[in-house]
Amino acid sequence: MAILDIAxxxxxxxxxxxxxxxxxxxxxxxxxxxxxxxxxxxxGGVGLAAPQVYVPLRIVIFFVPEGRDGxxxxxxxxxxxxxxxPVSDAMAEDWEGCLSVPYLTGVVPRWTxxxxxxxxxxxxxxxxxxxxxxxxxVQHETDHLDGVLYPMRMIDIATLSFTDAQADDExxxxxxxxxxxxxxxxxxxxxxxxxxxxxxxx
Length: 202
Hints:
This protein starts with 26 loop residues before the first helix and ends in a 14-residue tail after the last helix. The chain has 4 helices and 8 strands, in the order αβββββββαβαα. The radius of gyration is 18 Å and the shape is globular. It has helices spanning 27-43, 132-144, 165-175, 180-188, and strands at residues 47-49, 59-64, 74-86, 91-98, 101-111, 113-119, 125-131, 161-162. By secondary structure, it is an alpha+beta fold. It has a single domain, classed as Peptide deformylase (Peptide Deformylase), CATH 3.90.45.
């Protein structure tokens, strides 16, 4: 296995629609997927799409760690040629990061419940339902296959910030003598969800 280079926002590989996988007997396909897994783990992400490592194919890998969605972990999953359908029009906003948009984070609206289908590594069709963080990860990663990065989904670009900015703001509040209660009050005045700076990138 090998650790692959990750493309950053602005590179042409991240702007186009990726191609469907049709040959599931290609041994290079399995080697590539193994390399994607190693690369994602090495980079500290929870998901990775093939275009992010300079391969324009409709392949996504992801997992949902314990501690998200009430402990409903999802094991490492390989999705090939995925298709997403929302269960309802309900959407929720939350913070997202991305390995292809390093050091930044922003608030992104996503469908809260989805059904999705995909082919696994041997071409078999699989179907799943997802909600919460699980649904968010699947939508985020699948967007990469159509040349969409999360900043393009943001409603309020003012929420786009460096991942360490919140920690800096908290330190400044403490230096200014602002109490925890005052800080919480200021946060409550906005509709922006609280961000956990320690969360891995999608």
